[in-house]
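INSTRUCTION: Work out how this chain folds

Token vocabulary: learned, describes local backbone geometry

RECORD BEGINS BELOW THIS LINE
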Amino acid sequence: MSDQEAKEPEAKAGLRATLLRLYYGDTPTSQRFRYGLIAFDIVTVLFFVVSSMVEQGAWILWIDFAIALVLIVDFAARAMIANRTWRFFFRFGSIVDLVVIVSLLLPAFIDNLAFLRVVRLLRLLRSYHLLRELRQESRWFRRNEDVVQSTLNLVLFVFTVTAVVYVLEDHQNPNINNYFDALYFTVATLTTTGFGDITLTDTLGRALAVLIMIFGVGLFLRLVHTIFRPPKVAFPCPECGLKRHDPDAVHCKHCGALLNIPTEGEWH
């Protein structure tokens, strides 16, 4: 075996160790790297949403390709440090990333389906690094994590349904000419406002409207209720097992057992 062949496994192991430190380490450099990933995810999501509302041009395609390159590098790095690489490829977040990458690299073939790139937001919501950093650094986030998650889930749900409406109706419905028209129709339907100025007239569109009204309205109202309900803390009652309690609860509302909910100071 030549010296070069002997050094290749060592170089690969060294690269993997470096990536592990960046993605999971506790050093300042690791934290800055993860904050950079979080910032990139947020900027990417905002770009996907905004770009879906404007006319597509060459400059958007070049930005798409640049984002795709970064995503490919990040995806390859995470696959390299995964304990079981084959399982990594079947994770939901990995599948979402692959869909996004394909939609960025093949816009000529998928056309309006590129607007489904807002599913990138789903990876942002479930980002292990994002939640880890926020739980460690933000006391406010630890106290309001359920509300934040529900708010982001609501945003994701609305934009995803809007994307489906736009993809299916853009070339068939004269009332839906851009992404904002689809967003307007989606919100009007989910809130049961139903102004009637934009309607889905084709068979597929009406079927989609039925699905939105049957399943979407219920989920939409549930998420809204979760956002605006009084804050609760997760603490299993030792007697009955009730998990959700008021932050300042002394006794369980279900069985009356004495609770000892740990706090980090005064609740406001």
The beta strands are 233-234, 244-245. The first strand starts at residue 233 and ends at 234.
